[in-house]
Amino acid sequence: MNKLLSLIIYSIISLALSDAKSLTPEGYYGFAYNKMSDMLAGRDSLSIKRAVFLAEWAYYEGNLDYQKDFCDEINRIAKFVELFYLFNNLNQYKTGKQIALNNYFSKPYSGNGYKPYTYNYEDVDKDVINWENQFVSKVLKTHVGQCRSLPWMYKIISQEIGADVSIALAPRHYYIMYKDEDNFTPENWINLELTSGQMVPAFCIKDNFEISDSAVLVGTYMVPLNDVQTVACQLYELALGYCKKFGHYNEFTFQCASTALLYYPTSPIAWIIQCKSLE
CB 161: neighbour CB atoms within 10 A? Predict the structure, then answer.
């Protein structure tokens, strides 16, 4: 039944994307915006995986295949992680699926080709960053990513295997949060840094990124995002990709940010994009 449902969803998405083949470069962004807006408004099913894909697909002007470049590898990884979870008796832990996924990312196994996922240092010393280096479609192929692609990939696979995790933000940074239901740490939440593969105490994140208590209290940083807020993030990621590709903010980036703020009103990045779009 799950395979049949996946095939139906893929067929619908493929049909929709095929209708977009004659779009202008800007038109791909408009198409992706409409699809994400439909998800957020309840006119289409909410899918973080599809939202992430659409932001990258628009940047590539449609030259990215949802099944071959995205779903096939995600499905393969999910199957391996589920088997790892079962064969290692991780069902004895409430966060066993997260433990399995943590191991897959950080240690060499046959399922990852004995190549753990590592940080991409290519852009660290460069003034001009290659925008594609933050794409999930790229890290799926290379096993090299950074603080955007690695957490988003983790979130997508966690949904495939039924592990309850959330995207969280620090200034110019994403990471993963999930409840420490097994009491492995003194804190209520696990803060997982995919760039280092480490569980980091909350006070370290606050100190390293100079985050105030008030920014946490109002939900600007260091809070687990729900799925609606997470898809809203992809709207402002879409706007950032548009600006990177075309070199300016405009009415489109303003619209992306404005719609994102309807569903994620404390998003600092969406507010910044909205302001820049009015300059």
Answer: 18
- Name the pairing type of β-strands 144-145 and 118-119: parallel
The Cα–Cα gap between 68 and 73 comes to 8
Alpha helix (H) residue ranges in 127-226: 136-142, 149-161, 202-208, 213-217
Q: Is residue 173 classed as helix, strand or coil in its secondary structure?
A: strand
Looking at this protein, which amino acid is placed at residue 165?
A: V
pLDDT at 228 over 80: yes
Q: Please state the pTM of the whole predicted model.
A: 0.91
Q: From CA 106, how far away is CA 63, in angstroms rounded?
A: 30
CA distance 35 to 193: 30
Q: 8-31, pLDDT tens digit by residue?
A: 445 445 545 556 667 899 999 999
Three-state secondary-structure class, residue 118? strand
Residue type, 177: M
Q: Could you tell me the two tokens for 242? A: 């548009």
As a whole number of angstroms, the distance between CA 224 and CA 178 comes to 8
